[in-house]
Give the backbone structure.
Amino acid sequence: MQTAAKMRLADALVKILEKEETEFIFGYPGEQILPFYQALRKSSVKHVLMRHEQGAAHAADGYARASSQPGICVASAGPGALNMVMGVATAFKDSVPLLVITGDVSSQFKGENVFQDVDINSVFEPITLQSHLINNPKEGISIIQKAITALKNGKTGPIHLNFPKDILQEEVDTSLLDEWLELTYETDDKLLKNNEPGESLLKNNEPDEKILNQVRELVETSQKPLILSGAGVLWSHASEDLQIFAEKHQIPVVTTYPARGVISEDHPLSLGLIGLRGTEAANFAGENADIILVLGSRLSERTLMGLGKGPIIQVNLDEAVLTGDVNIKGDVKEFLEKIKETTPENTDEWLNELQKYDKNQNVATDFEETPIKPQRAIMEILQGMNDSILVNDAGSHTTWVNLLMKVREPSSLIFSGGFGPMGYGIPAAVGVSLARPSKHVVVVVGDGGFQMSVQELATIAEMELPITICLLNNQSLGIIKQWQELYYDGSFQVELDNPDFVKLANAYHIKALMIDSPGDIFAAVQEAVKLNKPVLIEIRVDENEDIPFPR
């Protein structure tokens, strides 16, 4: 009788990732995850060594946003896993699909308060769609493959798998790698958490024909229809479908922040961002539309600020966010296919009315004085970056990018709008650059955010990634300082005694220069992009220039 071939679970996990054509994993090794790293050593999957576990999660997040595919990050037990929490929470808040793999102390020591033992799953549970402690190798194979399927086809967000070291080293029959779809384990109920009991983790949750007919009737009788696109359109790879539908039926389009560029903001039907910081045209349309098709958006409080009382048809794979008048749990791409022949009444009058309102954010940038006004700096960066992808960190500069940038392609402006962590930009740019190797990447970051993830310059330099870092140095935590001076009787603990950023970048073997005169930024950015190598440009900006608060 022939004995079934066996392999360690760690090797089997890597084989599964290879079968899924995984190209990159972002991580940082540690003792309890070493069996997995040993398997990676012999793999076609490329491991990207970040310099901090938070950076690994942000890089996987950037990779996912730029590629519209799940990102993967890995860390060890205890401190390693907990260091990833910020990055995982960021992805969760913005519904970014991540597979988060952590090692853990051996199963016999779990809960015994041994070295690096902590209840990792209880920490990750509120910031992931699912968090699983793997109890045996068969369970590990089943869950990782179902998790990958869920990330590609279901509601988006992070899924966390925690592997004790001894379980990673146990052996399984290799036949399980091909038979996993036929296997059923007790873990199935946990994998269906956040879905209806017994519901498939795949797409094709067919909406009720009665509801679709209700949608068709609402659209067909509409005179002022509006499409509101969220990032779910990107995750369902439906950008082209949305544009075709909008053009065929002449329906204007507004977007949430993460969906900017899903239809070019130069397109005649695009009204731009809606809600907080939204354009005049987008917010007027939101307040006056007689039907709003909300596609792949959870309708955050910032988006709702731009909406009136028009009935909402909301389509989302996440049932928990459905709050519209007509709710459809389903995939945006499939929904658009179902209603592609549904057309409203003539929208010419509506489109003509919308032309009276501004689709641009009118911000003055023609300042010639020094120190450089940050809005002037951002304007020159945007002009010099050509068709690069822009990755935006958190800080006062974020507002100027939002107000001044025209987003013309999907996933060409990358920013964590839901959580807004400082230090996101540089590690996220690593993932973005690897996801889109034909594109140059420009990061806009402040001096505060830069110093929260400066160590990731080592990864950028080591891999010679074509990333230009535009560091706006106002020697302070500008937006916090502005809030303090407005509402808290003066600033406190927001002035920054900064290092020499040029020398610091040079220490990482990255070309760097400092600019303190308006007019020089455009040429510097343009030259850096042409160089197609890592470059840091420090830009000294006016520390007393405040951002305009939204009305």
Q: What stands out?
A: The chain is about 40% helix and 15% strand. The mean pLDDT is 93. The radius of gyration is 24 Å.
